[in-house]
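Minutes, project huddle
Topic: does the predicted pose make sense with nicotinamide-adenine-dinucleotide bound?
PN asked that the exact inputs be recorded in the minutes so nobody has to dig through chat later. Recorded below.
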Amino acid sequence: MNAQTHYDIALIGSGSVNSFPGPDLAGHSIVQIDRGVGPQAVFGGTCLNLGCIPTKMFVRTADLALAPSESAALGVRERLEGVDWPAIRDRIFGRIDPISAGGEEYRASHEDNANLTLLRGEARFTGPKALRVELADGTTREITADTIVLGAGSRPEIPAIDGLADAAPQTSDTVMRMDALPASMLILGSGIIAVEFAHVLDALGVDVTLVARSQRVLRAADADVSARLTEILGGRIRLETGLDTTSVRRTAEGVELRGTRGREEVVLQAEDVLVATGRRPNSDRLDVAAGGIGLADGGRVAVDAYQRVLDPGGQVLPGVWALGDISSPDQLKHVANHQLRIVRHNVLHPEEMRRSDEMPVPFGVFTHPQVAWVGRDEETARAEAERSGREIRVAVQEYSSIAYGWAMEDTTGFLKLVVDAESTAILGAQIIGPEATSLIQLLVQAMSTGQTARDLARTQYWIHPAMPELVENALLQVAD
Ligand SMILES: Cc1cc2nc3c(=O)[nH]c(=O)nc-3n(C[C@H](O)[C@H](O)[C@H](O)COP(=O)(O)OP(=O)(O)OC[C@H]3O[C@@H](n4cnc5c(N)ncnc54)[C@H](O)[C@@H]3O)c2cc1C
Ligand SMILES: NC(=O)c1ccc[n+]([C@@H]2O[C@H](COP(=O)([O-])OP(=O)(O)OC[C@H]3O[C@@H](n4cnc5c(N)ncnc54)[C@H](O)[C@@H]3O)[C@@H](O)[C@H]2O)c1
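Predicted holo structure (tokens), as shared on screen:
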């Protein structure tokens, strides 16, 4: 076993925490420990290699593949002549893989990183602020550090369903690099990953069946939005809602999923199965208990609003910080990036620390149509208003009521805006429809800067006839 090496700063991970080093830390000794993500244990974290970036490149491709089925309503006859899966996959990873490799090379050997040691392997706590790193070559290193920043992320959770793990299901870690598209795919789960991949695979010609325990997909969204998406996806793919999966088996033809709906037994078959039932934080792989670290719900590392790690008694563990999926209830890249900036600031300026929880967190779901939201849904806002004795106002604006909606011939999209009736403070907004993930940003900005619906509607020109008129018209409903 090697002697213990002490560093000023230990960083765990190469996703969001990879933005921690910088020229202003040149006088500090830093060790960055990274096991890598996915089957190839690649550098650079989930978003770049297995998450946001490749999925959205697939989604853009899928949107184009869907165009012929949508253009008919505008009097344009188009035909999809084919889908070249290897070309689609290799365009995407041909761009991403060199970025991952270049990022690793930069950390490992560029002079900018002369004060940084990169260890490719798995870190585990052996004591408070003490880590053992198992390197890829089987050797180990013992590390201690004054400051430890945990950015170890999360991984797909395979639920404890009879036979599922043995059936070697696809997950988001593997599905984007398949050798060939299957003819049919079962998707287990109905959250964000499930609805994004349902769109991608269906648009590329796969016969998709989505298996949901609940009656609606994307239940994290407002009930009306979730119901609308369920209706729309139900017109494109086979939706098996209200189904409790009891077993999954590999068969000679592919996979067989058995489940129950009430007293009815349901058997579904497909060439492959994709599991999208949530992601679990990697706190177990780090053995955080040995480091004296406390856990919050779902295996998350417990942190306070300054991203300081807490012990099991809720006390701050000095010098230990966490960010991103390992500690956050919102497993989103923009949240991880924001928390990275907060941690970096707080480590460098302990006398003027910043909180990480002062802005509303927006969600953008890149299915088809897109869904996005920020703040409260209608049901939550109503319940809160009832408790506080305040009143809310709700505006619903259909895309079909604005000029650009006519141009798009959109018949299903809408924005729902919830405001405080008196002040017109924006409490929440939900959008389902084209460019929802961009349109929501107007409302994210207003909520983050404290602009009311009245201010936002009346203190600027709104370009006519552009899509933001959807937002303007909803604001005008509540801004009198
Ligand atoms: C399919 C998919 C699509 C997504 N799309 C979006 C999207 O559109 N928008 C969005 O905002 N978010 C999206 N996300 C979520 C987003 O990818 C994550 O929230 C974000 O990447 C988390 O960043 P992180 O730095 O916390 O963790 P990661 O980027 O996962 O980094 C964790 C790092 O820790 C390392 N590590 C783990 N355990 C150890 C250990 N014991 N020792 C050493 N190293 C270790 C890993 O190698 C990795 O480098 C998506 C996720 C998935 C799976
Ligand atoms: N566009 C984006 O921002 C984006 C895209 C993809 C992923 N992500 C992040 O990744 C996280 C993980 O995504 P996800 O879709 O796996 O999780 P999720 O939490 O969005 O959805 C999980 C779904 O699986 C269901 N489920 C859980 N156990 C089940 C079981 N045994 N049988 C059937 N269904 C079961 C849940 O009811 C839920 O519908 C998301 O929470 C999100 O934060 C974000």
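Observations noted during the meeting:
- The domain at 369-478 is CATH 3.30.390.30 (Enolase-like; domain 1).
- The first strand starts at residue 4 and ends at 12.
No decisions taken; revisit at the next huddle.
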